[in-house]
Write a structure and sequence with these properties.
Helix content is 45%, strand content 14%. It has eight helices and seven strands, in the order E-H-E-H-E-H-E-H-E-H-E-H-H-H-E.
Length: 280
């Protein structure tokens, strides 16, 4: 398979400016500065949402908002610095959004880290384990915990978490990452059971391998560890997929849009797998 398939990494959104499925909605996106979070933010903005983008770097958030605003001059957006592993920081993030907009209609949790690559369980340090679980699992939980009171008061809300196919099966030499994504699925299902009575939906998306900076790092790590070429590792990933192309951030953005829109009003506690058939 030709490496030209990497073009999926630069795939652009097919924006239907007449859709406006999130018209008037306030959307908070953690990890919204770049990558998957940035792509989701762009799509949601074109669908009519007012944005609250949260990440560690205000500068990166402002740059992402400026990029979207170049296409949508009237975009309503704020940038909020946050450390998702801190309860106080997550509370401050939510309060900043409420101060600006008065409500949060949709929370999308994309903040995450990949952790150790090609590392057997016995070689993963305690610090590495805590960091991955802290950002991916605890960060998802704390963001939800902080946003829920306002959603419960409004008797309405949509929560979309990013899990992963590594949370559907074992993932050799990625124990901390796999554990964190299994945890996200558990958080999603449990929260859905608790908040459905308040007309709040909680779901997650499980991306397959997404070609981009992070996947490039993983492929390089595997190639170096195994002593094989980058191209061989790249094509090994493709060979496991029913559809012979990598998932893109665009694919995930559209899945998140469905779960954030009224079209999914009767869907909760579910994990939507978007992986080209990697886990089939």
């Amino acid at each position: 398979m030709s490496l030209a398939i990497r073009a999926s990494d630069t795939e652009r959104l097919n924006l239907d400016r007449g859709s406006r499925r999130l018209e008037g909605k306030v959307v908070l996106i953690t990890g919204g500065a770049k990558g998957m979070g940035g792509t989701i933010a762009e799509l949601f903005a074109h669908e009519g949402a007012s944005l609250a983008l949260a990440a560690r770097s205000i500068e990166d958030l402002d740059a992402e908002a400026a990029r979207i605003r170049a296409e949508l001059p009237g975009l309503a957006s704020i940038s909020v610095g946050v450390d998702v592993t801190s309860g106080d920081s997550c509370q401050a993030m939510v309060q900043a959004v409420l101060d600006r907009y008065g409500r949060i209609d949709v929370l999308v949790n994309t903040a995450g880290v990949i952790g150790p690559i090609e590392t057997a369980a016995q070689n993963v340090s305690e610090e590495e384990w805590e960091h991955v679980l802290g950002v991916n699992a605890k960060g998802t939980f704390l963001s939800i915990k902080s946003a829920l009171p306002s959603m419960i008061a409004a008797k309405s809300g949509k929560i979309v978490n990013i899990a992963g196919t590594s949370g559907l099966r074992g993932y050799k030499n990625r124990v901390s990452y796999s554990a964190s994504k299994w945890a996200v699925r558990g958080i999603t299902r449990t929260v859905a059971l608790e908040v459905g009575v308040h007309n709040i939906n909680c779901n997650c998306v499980a991306p397959g391998p997404i070609y981009g900076d992070r996947m490039d790092k993983i492929i390089r790590g595997k190639a170096a560890t195994k002593g094989i070429s980058y191209e061989q590792v790249f094509n090994d990933y493709l060979s496991e997929q029913a559809i012979k192309r990598f998932t893109s951030a665009v694919d995930i953005a559209y899945a998140c849009l469905y779960l954030a829109s009224d079209e999914s009003r009767q869907v909760t506690g579910q994990c939507l797998t978007v992986d080209g058939g990697w886990d089939v």
